[in-house]
Write a structure and sequence with these properties.
The protein is an alpha/beta fold. Helices cover 44% and strands 16% of the residues. The longest helix is centred in the middle third of the chain and has 39 residues.
């Protein structure tokens, strides 16, 4: 099919949706997909998706191959392009200044996406869509501005998992032809996939060796290892935990795998068992790939006593319906009823202190005094008050955040409570990770039980009872409720600040609306921006400003960017980075 015939066929399709049978089938199918996606054939308006991650395994495996290929093409007007699986350009290498200027003009630059969704038929997007090597030349491109180019794309799949990880594309001028480009791209892709295999094999071998070493070192202890697509669990854990407990343990381990330092973390499992995960730092794995190795100690939490507790634990001032929340409250309540000292471990804001206070009100017959770490550290009169309280014939005390006390302060508190185990009850709270050795040596030995308070993201179903409960508190009985859509949006958020953060969010809602139904657009910006990391104060301000500008401009990103005085590329990047959904 001649170039002129192809141009006529394209124009006929765009005008009348009439497909010429002589157009190659992969191209005609892609034209139809592009049209259904409402891609503009006249001009490209591509989004900046994100900054390229050049530390990813694909980029590391491809870098020497791309350099070698580019060196071989240094005298040719050909660009070597690597993309991620969603079409985002990771790197582009070309020696020709004229070709580079053209590629800049059509936004074929790192950070922008060339998926069919945005660019229509092209060597990158169509390759990723079909998972087949694809050559697109001249007028076969859906967008008219690409008509002077020839693009040969080849999908890159991970040789172990079969997962599509990206594409390699060679782009040059249409008059120079494309078959040779396709051949070169296939050859280079084979080399990249070979390096991915070697890379994965080396990492997985290191993980396996570290896992086996840990199993040999502690045969009576549970061992759990995590890799990209690998989970290793020793027989000790397989026998001791049912499938539901194993799944819950794995979920916690994945959450913890991003923590770099050595730490211990206590988790409550669905069956009622409690496990302590201890990270193993010195197993020699590279930092490039997300891997983790844990010892898992199963703790005696007297599940029979928990099982005999009431099925539903109602505590004053707190609420929750999830199994993990009810089980945690039952464990704390049993300790209070039996006057056993208990540590409640968990993230700040998760409800540790509130649960201890509610349990004391419900199950301890005498008045409970609450002392915080800040008070013990900053007010010279508080330590004597604690000593006086502990000198009572019977006492009930809650110590909050004792892990935040200095070593000297912990030593003083340890001396005060020494030998008082049978004279009264003490409940204390600590953080979920990063405990220092002083705490282990000085204070924890005095407590017979440790109970883990699950983070809100691990009991997200509790939002359905927590949110109405907090709205009634904050609204002082006002008739204010969340729409189903607003509740679904709250459930999507990760709640790094737990229940404390939820209270702050609902406080903002109540300040703006006193009655009626709260819709999604009435929620604070943070709940409509699902970022993957905790934002700094400046990032949070940026996020809120972008959300407000998008609202004021009815979702028009270009207008919102103009109003903020930033470029369209910047607002696209920030929307993606902050996970903004308006």
């Amino acid at each position: 099919m001649t170039t002129k015939d192809l141009q006529k066929a394209r124009e006929l399709f765009l005008a009348d949706n009439d497909l010429d049978s002589s157009v190659r089938q992969p191209i005609s199918f892609s034209w139809q997909r592009s049209k259904s996606l409402k891609v503009s054939p006249d001009q490209l308006d591509l989004p900046f998706v994100r900054e390229p991650n050049l530390d990813c395994p694909l980029a590391a495996a491809a870098e020497p191959v791309l350099r070698q290929l580019a060196d071989g093409l240094v005298d040719e007007p050909v660009s070597v392009i690597l993309t991620s699986a969603d079409g985002v350009i990771l790197t582009r290498i070309a020696a020709s200044r004229r070709l580079n200027r053209t590629l800049d003009d059509v936004q074929l630059i790192p950070g922008y996406s060339y998926s069919e969704e945005f660019a229509g038929t092209n060597g990158i997007g169509t390759t990723l869509e079909t998972r087949q090597p694809t050559l697109v030349t001249g007028a076969e491109h859906y967008a008219d501005c690409l008509g002077q180019l020839a693009c040969a794309g080849v999908p890159i799949t991970h040789p172990m998992s079969g997962t599509l990880v990206g594409a390699l594309d060679l782009t040059g001028w249409v008059e120079d032809g494309g078959p040779l480009l396709a051949t070169l791209a296939k050859s280079a892709t084979a080399q990249i996939e070979g390096r991915l295999l070697a890379q994965a094999s080396a990492d997985q071998t290191s993980l396996l060796n570290a896992y086996l070493k840990a199993c040999r070192r502690s045969p009576q202890t549970g061992v759990l290892a995590l890799g990209d697509d690998v989970v290793l669990v020793n027989r000790r854990l397989r026998v001791a935990l049912d499938a539901q407990d194993q799944a819950a343990l794995l979920e916690h381990a994945v959450d913890l795998s991003s923590v770099n330092a050595t730490y211990r973390h206590i988790v409550a499992l669905p069956s009622g068992q409690t496990a302590r995960l201890s990270s193993i730092e010195d197993f020699g794995l590279g930092a490039r790939r997300p891997m983790a190795l844990f010892y898992v100690h199963l703790l005696d939490v007297r599940t029979s006593s928990v099982a005999s507790a009431p099925a539903s634990t109602v505590l004053p001032g707190v609420t929750g319906t999830s199994a993990s929340w009810r089980r945690t409250c039952q464990q704390i309540a049993r300790c209070a009823r039996e006057q056993q000292w208990v540590i409640v471990s968990g993230e700040p804001g998760s409800g540790r202190g509130s649960a201890l206070k509610a349990v004391a009100i419900e199950h301890v017959p005498i008045r409970t005094r609450i002392f915080t770490a800040a008070e013990l550290s900053e007010d010279s009169a508080v330590l004597p008050a604690l000593e006086q309280e502990l000198d009572q014939e019977r006492f009930s005390v809650v110590l909050r955040d004792i892990d935040l006390l200095s070593e000297a302060q912990q030593r003083v508190v340890a001396d005060l409570i020494q030998g008082r185990e049978h004279a009264g009850w003490i409940g204390a709270t600590i953080g979920g990770t990063g405990h220092n050795t002083d705490l282990d040596a000085l204070l924890l030995p005095h407590f017979s039980h440790t109970v883990t308070m699950p983070a809100l993201r691990h009991r997200i179903d509790d939002l359905h009872s927590l949110a109405p409960h907090l709205l009634r508190q904050l609204g002082r009985g006002a008739e204010l409720s969340l729409s189903p859509a607003a509740m679904r949006q709250l459930c999507k958020y990760s709640w790094p600040g737990n229940v404390t953060e939820l209270r702050q969010v609902l406080h903002e809602v109540v300040q703006r609306q006193r009655s009626g139904v709260v819709e999604v657009d009435q929620l604070p910006p943070m709940c409509r921006a699902l970022s993957r990391h905790t934002l700094t104060q400046i990032e949070a301000l940026e996020r809120d400003a972008i959300v407000r500008s998008l609202e004021e401009n009815h979702g028009n990103k270009k207008a919102a960017a103009t109003a903020l005085g930033i470029s369209r590329a910047t607002i696209y990047r920030k929307i993606k980075e902050f996970g903004i959904d308006v």
